[in-house]
Structure formats: C-alpha cells, structure tokens
Amino acid sequence: LVEAVGADILAECLGADRDVVVKSALIHDWYKRREIEKMKISGAVKGHRDILAEDINLLKEYGVDKKIIKISHSNIPEKSDLEYLKNRSLEEKIMHFIDTITSNSEFMDFHKRLDIADKKKEVTEFSESYRDKYEGKSLNELQREVALTEQREFEKMLNLQQNALIDFIKEKLKERINNF
Predict the structure, then answer these.
(1) In angstroms, rounded to a whole number, what is the distance separating the alpha carbons of residues 37 and 64?
(2) Which residues are CB-neighbours of 60 under 8 A, at least 6 positions away?
(3) Nearest to 113 by CA among 97, 137, 125, 129
(4) Computed from CA positions of residues 126, 127, 128, 133, in that sequence, does the dihedral angle turn out positive or negative?
(5) What is the number of other CB atoms lying within 10 angstroms of the CB of residue 178?
(6) The pLDDT value given to residue 62
C-alpha cells in the first residue's frame, strides 16, 4: 500500500492520472508470492515468465483495463532503447520509479534498494537474464540508469534540488497522515 500512496503523491504533484497510477500500483505485486514460489521451483527466468503470463490473463479475466495492466508492469522496461524510455507515459515512469525506491514499506534511495535486491540469488539470476535484451546490461543496471533519469526529470518538474525527491515524497506522506 505504501507504493500506492507514494505513486499517488507523485501523480498528484506531477499532474499524472492519479486513478490509473494508484490502481496500477495496487495491483503490480498482487501475484508476488506466487512469483517467488514459481521462481524457486522453475528458476528465476522461467518462473517469472510463466507467472507473468498467468497474471496478465487473470487481470484481463477480472476486467482490469489494459492501460492499468500495462502500467502495473512498467517496473520492468520493455526495452533499453533511450528513445523508448524517454517517451514512456508519465504514469509508467512514476510506477517504475516508485517500485525502484520502495522496499517493504520504506522509501529509500534507488541505489540502496537495488543493492538490497542484488544480494538475493534469485534476483541476481533474474537481473542477469536481461543482458541480451538490454544490450549487455543487467535489469538492475538498467533500473539504476532509468531511475536516475526519472528522479532528475521529476525533481526538475517539481523545482526540487538534486537528490531531494525521496525526502519530498516522505514529507508529503507525513502531511497526508497528519491531515487524515
């Protein structure tokens, strides 16, 4: 739920479609437990691929809008092409960024969050499997580059100093809690 609130904060402040961003954030990890189980049984790459296909089909069966499904999966970029990455929707960028800075219920620097992920064997195996797709980069290497670009873009849009975005999100969260 923390990701959904963080996504809503960014969507509100950046002028994105809040409804789409929040719904996407709420469902983006709904199958996580099954994904982890499948990755342990079938290996990281096959487990993720199998569960992703099941996930998309189930979401369609439940009547979830295709746009929300797409944005909910934007935490893993489809391509490493700079033009593609630059032209993703604001909602996709927000979803990707929030996922990259959230660990459990804490917002943190994306480097720290990805360092934590890199210590898990199955995550490293999965990340490394993207080298062919991402022109020699692992998923986590691309995640770092993309998150930095998104952070700089959002900071510029919000007139924040460099590296102030995560503290900004935390402060906005505190304001919401205090006004609840």
Answers:
(1) 24
(2) 66, 69
(3) 97
(4) positive
(5) 7
(6) 93
Which long-range contacts does 36-42 make (Cβ < 8 Å, 24+ apart)? 36/122, 39/122, 39/126, 40/122
Q: Residue 103 carries which DSSP code?
A: E
User: What is the H or E stretch that residue 114 is in?
Assistant: helix 110-118
pLDDT for the residue 31: 67
Average pLDDT, the chain: 91
- Listed in sequence order, the residues at least 6 apart from 43 whose beta carbon sits closer than 8 Å to its beta carbon are 125
Q: Give the span between the Cα atoms of 148 and 154, in whole angstroms.
A: 10
Q: Which helix (H) or strand (E) holds 57?
A: helix 44-61
CB count within 10 Å of CB 62 equals 8
Which residue, chain included where needed, has tokens 């996922």? Answer: 99
Structure tokens that stand for 136 in this block? 């020699």
pTM assigned to the model: 0.91
Burial class (CB in 10 A: 0-12, 13-18, 19+), 102: buried
Cβ burial of 74 (10 Å; 0-12, 13-18, 19+) is: buried
Tens-digit pLDDT profile for residues 137-173: 999 999 999 999 999 999 999 999 999 999 999 999 9
